[in-house]
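Model it.
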Amino acid sequence: MTELMKAMQLDAPGNPLRPVERALPEPGAGEMLIRVSACGVCRTDLHVVDGDIRGKLPIVPGHEIVGRVVAMGEKVAGFAPGDRVGVPWLGHTCGICAYCCSGRENLCDDPLFTGFTRDGGFASHVVADAAYCFPIPERFSDVEAAPLLCAGLIGYRALRMAGDARRIGFYGFGAAAHILAQLAVWRGREILAFTRPGDSEGQAFARSLGCMWAGASGDSPPGELDAAIIFAPVGALVPEALRNVRKGGRVVCAGIHMSDIPAFPYEHLWGERTILSVANLTRADGVEFLALAAQAPIATTTTRFALEDANEALAALREGKLEGAAVLVP
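Modeled.
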């Protein structure tokens, strides 16, 4: 009898995910079949489902995957059946384009992305390229570790791109910000959290994680920022952040999608302020961040959902009803 796997599949943008059963796939050369233990629900998954970004269809979303190796294809090195591994957004790169050859595989011209152009972890099983998987720090449970695979990794890249800034504003305090705030405070940074107006619970959550100040977007922080990281997909936050950043400061846009940035006076950019975006991640980012996560006093706040309740988890994320991250458990 053919062994089956379960998955939540997107057939068309804007449609709810639907449960499907498929034959259990076999891993090819360099690939591993992984039994999914937990998969985080990321805002990028929401952008995929809502059609803000367009990839392969039908598709199984999910790219914050923690699971255990069931089977391996030929030419897999460094892993064995039973190992716990993490599968991130970056699923494969060409290795030959100018970006790959210059240490910038996050900008690869011919990549594959987990849950976007190759099936992801809203499922009981997933096939992944072993070269793009990571061992998971032992101190995290499967559910606790899942948000590290994108909220943590992409957030860490954004934090690195903020440079040596000491006082940093986080605009949007969701899954990524709640992880990175803890890491940044541990490393001696001052974090100021900006939430949706009226979100007193979110502001209290930010302060509980060590943020020195928390208020609403539109509020004036106590003093200038050295840098700002925008996690919320709201283009109007870019001019606001620029107004609060000192001369020579940076505004880092951390999402894969954002609403249009409105026009703003040149004087808000003048003074050698810069705006830059974060694109994907490199495997080096993953190795470095997970090593830090093993040492830092990071605790991920999660809400569990059953795999078949993936649409409810997406709705909760869309409506801003989550504290920390949603995680699907098959």
